[in-house]
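Practice problem: predict the structure.
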Amino acid sequence: MQERRAGEGVAVVLYAEKEIRVTKRELVVAVAERLGYTQNEVASVVQAALDTVTECLAERQRLEIRNFGVFEVKKRDARIGRNPRTGQEVSIAEKFVATFKPGKALKEYVEGVGPKPTMAEAGAPEAPPAAPAGGDVPRGSESIL
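Answer:
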C-alpha cells in the first residue's frame, strides 16, 4: 500500500498496488456517457484519433496535445547486447520507438499536486455544440474534440 498525504492535514488516502487497466471499449462507454453521444459515434471518433496518432508516429511526426503530453518517435542507435542465457554478444540493429512524455499539467495531476487538466485550458470548447432547434444534426457535422 502507498500512502499519500494532503498538505499538513491528517487525511490519508491509500492506494492498492494493483494495476488497473482501461480498455478502449471502456473509454468509449465513459466518453459516450459524459458527452451524451452514442457509443458508435464515440467509437468512430476514438478510432479516428488513434489512427491519426499512429499515422503521425509512422511518419516520424511529433504530436503535442496541450495539458496532456507529447507523442514522438525516437531513434535507438545500433548497439551490442548480450544474450542473458548464454552471455554471447549479440548485434542489435537501430530502430525507431514511439514514446510519450506527459505534459506538466497531467504530470502534476497524477502526482496529486495539481488540479485536473481540462480541455478548456487548452483552448478547446468545454461542451459539444448544441443541436439546432427543430432538427437533427447530420452525421459527421458535429464535433466533440
